[in-house]
Amino acid sequence: MLEGATKAHAAYLAPIKTSNRALVACHGPRPGKVGLVIGGGTGHEPCFMGYVGRGLADAVAIGNVFSAPPPGPILECAKAASGGAGVLFVYGNYAGDVMNFEMAAEMAQEQSIPVRSILTTDDIASSPIEDKEGRRGVAGNVFIFKIAGAACDQGLSLDQCEALARKANDRTFTIGVALEPCSMPQTQRHNFEIGPDDIEIGMGIHGERGVMRDRMMRADEITDRVMDRIFSEMKAPAGSSVAVLVNSFGATPLMELYILFRRVEQRLSAKNITIEVNWIGHYCTSLDMVGASISILHLDAELSQLLRHPCDTASLRIP
Amino acid sequence: MLEGATKAHAAYLAPIKTSNRALVACHGPRPGKVGLVIGGGTGHEPCFMGYVGRGLADAVAIGNVFSAPPPGPILECAKAASGGAGVLFVYGNYAGDVMNFEMAAEMAQEQSIPVRSILTTDDIASSPIEDKEGRRGVAGNVFIFKIAGAACDQGLSLDQCEALARKANDRTFTIGVALEPCSMPQTQRHNFEIGPDDIEIGMGIHGERGVMRDRMMRADEITDRVMDRIFSEMKAPAGSSVAVLVNSFGATPLMELYILFRRVEQRLSAKNITIEVNWIGHYCTSLDMVGASISILHLDAELSQLLRHPCDTASLRIP
């Protein structure tokens, strides 16, 4: 897979010679710029390597399917991304990733590369609000990468980049919905079981348990359940602006994402909330899982400017 | 679906008021420019409406799932896309589409809009070479749209635009491979049956019969069968350049497309053929069908320049 991807995206990505699990942006790291390192398991393509390039991430560490990358490649990414102004690690809050990114951060600091880590926790169904830090990072992490990448590209300090990425994470709210499991290539088995007429709301991107299993319902009803839950946490008054990401987990087609988006737009519009940016498609997948997630980033002027900042990567281009 | 898509892509697409099955590019048609009209059934998203915008198509006519659009909306598209220099219809060679686009072309000519029609026939597995005109148009049509759109945008005459689109069609070679059927929303049934360990080579984007059903094989072997067949028709000498499209039919993840691309690149490289452009992802789908297609456009200097010409649409942006 990596051989194919690096051949395909040679204009964006180059292998880091000291590791076969780390890639660096061809036009990313530069002296004086904070470096942005992302990464995680494979099986979520275009996460994470599709978001490496100018204006976004500088390097990506790559694990096995649904497994964290080892500390070694993450350290190589930190070194490759370092331009002397420090490095930001932004990754999903999963035990394996946390352990390995933390080890790599320590090793990088020993080599005099200052590292700050932001764990994405946008999956609001994964843990109650009292345990916000225990939540998982899912598709909304693409918003957080984008904000962090723009802040780095604009030459802000490590403190400022960290603060902006944290703000983006605090204001991103995602819920996923699964209809059918994916098949794990390692085991050739499904990663969970669900009845043909059932739906699970709140499911994670590796098939983690959601908050509710129910009989299949119409797209508008699914969207309403998701949006009600997002509205219960997102304190966006009338007149606010948001970015919306309707993301396929893999097998759910664009046609159905548009149907979900239609209702998302209606619900936001009814509250007089403006959709400033919408992304609809395959942004953070789970192999061939059937399902989708809805992420809302509650913008302010600063985040809006960063979200619109140009980037040029294999999977996201903002001119 | 259309409500969601037009809300999402309001910067690119506007409904044509006289039809609920026709959309026009916000920044497409202009006086003196040949207009490009595309269209077909839904269920292939981002085909076709994702390719409407500056530098690509000017209007799109939209049918039901896997069904041709009626002549009325196609005529409305021709009128909306007409800038006084004539209109090009580019669409896949299917009986329903041919009938309705031809009726619309006649109606447009009655209203003094000159129309030329190019039927895409890139699916080389769909009919033997002796019956080239009987072949179906599949994912390779995205290349043909792109060439035609660029020719129109560069202000070429209707004759020239037609000739270039025909040349692109003549030099585009696609073969699809299916592993699992899609589920038709109208019937809630599969559109064909295939064993869990079987694979069908040459299958069309609506589940049309392929050329060979076989036991499941490795990705490299699948790619070799496809490429051998493409090489048997594509007369590209060493030193040639091509564009490659590795397209998911829906449920096949990007990860697997990269694995296919890896082998495509090896095969082309062994013949000293350069990949000038590669597109890998969901370009022309079949709802949630499991499978992929490989399209090769044999470039020359003229086609290469047109393929790289800037375009700005919901699903394809070339800066």
Automatic annotation (TrEMBL), chains A, B:
GO cellular component: cytosol
Alphabetized UniProt keyword annotations: Kinase, Transferase
SUPFAM superfamilies: DAK1/DegV-like (SSF82549)
Molecular function as annotated in GO: glycerone kinase activity
The UniProt record lists the keyword Kinase: yes
Residues annotated as domain DhaK: 1-316
Superkingdom of the organism of origin: Bacteria
Alphabetized PROSITE patterns for the sequence: DHAK
Membrane-crossing residue ranges in chain numbering: none
The keyword Transport is assigned to this record: no
Gene3D superfamilies: Dihydroxyacetone kinase, domain 1, Dihydroxyacetone kinase, domain 2
GO BP term, pick one: glycerol catabolic process
InterPro entries, per database record: DhaK_dom (IPR004006), Dihydroxyacetone_Kinase (IPR050861)
Classification via Pfam families: Dak1
PANTHER family, A to Z: TRIOKINASE/FMN CYCLASE (PTHR28629), TRIOKINASE_FMN CYCLASE (PTHR28629:SF4)
Protein name: Dihydroxyacetone kinase
Protein source organism: Rhizobium oryziradicis
